[in-house]
Amino acid sequence: MFSLAIFLAFCLCFVESQFPRVCTSDAAFRTKTCCPLWKDKSPCGSLSGRGKCRDWIDYTGRTLPMYNDDRLDWPRHYYDYTCECFGNYSGFDCGDCKYGYQGENCDRKKIIIRREIRELSPLEQKRYFSYLALAKTTKSQDYVILSTGDRHHRETYRFVDASLYDVFVWMHYYSMKPIMINNTFIPNLNFAHQGPVFPGWHRLNLLFLERQIQLMTRDEDFAIPYYDWRGDKNCSICTDELLGTNDDQGLLNPYSHFSFWKVIIVTCINLLFIA
């Protein structure tokens, strides 16, 4: 079974990561601080008891090999000060709730009913794919993507806008870049696959997209459906009404929901992990 957030096979050729838009100013990088003001005008909503701006806590576990990788202890490479949210508050500015909670004080539990996609009515399926299309074309107001030639020099940082869906997809792509140990790329090691983090990381990634769509549509009951392939000899959801079929050349059928989706193309840069 897997959740249908549709990881399309894009040709991605630039390094990306998730950055709060408000934390990409020259001042933020100069001070290495990402503690945005909440609506009460205090960093991390501290005046309202939502969180506080705190110094990064160093990892105290066993000694690790030398990783020249900005993803390790994220986002320590870029910021020394970030928000620590209290209780059920969450988000880069503590302005949201932890997954599963809602309300002004994040004190109401919210149970989302996740259903098998084939159990959805035609209207519900249409709404789901409409939401995905809207997320694909709606620019993220909170996050931008980093495209840079050298992670060690702030003056080379360049941030680009992306849609809500593209931010989600490129978070996955960024986690899949090979790890570099002692200046050597290890192609079969990354931060999302082939390890114990696999199920937890992908679940959080999907919850991120789900929450972004809920906020975009103001539909707090929206839930990404799943596909239960047990007993299926073939891909029963590979229809133009769902994921899409192939044409004679093996390309996505033009009648598919996704056949005309666009891809952001940025010049390929391969220097992000080079120390």
From TrEMBL:
One annotated GO molecular function is: metal ion binding
Key words, A-Z: Melanin biosynthesis, Metal-binding, Signal
Domain Tyrosinase copper-binding, by residue range, is 193-210
Q: Which superkingdom does the taxonomy of this entry point to?
A: Eukaryota
Keyword Transit peptide listed: no
GO CC, alphabetical: melanosome membrane
Name of the protein this chain belongs to: Tyrosinase copper-binding domain-containing protein
Q: Where in the cell is it found?
A: Melanosome membrane
Q: What family does this belong to? A: Belongs to the tyrosinase family.
| Membrane topology category | Single-pass type I membrane protein
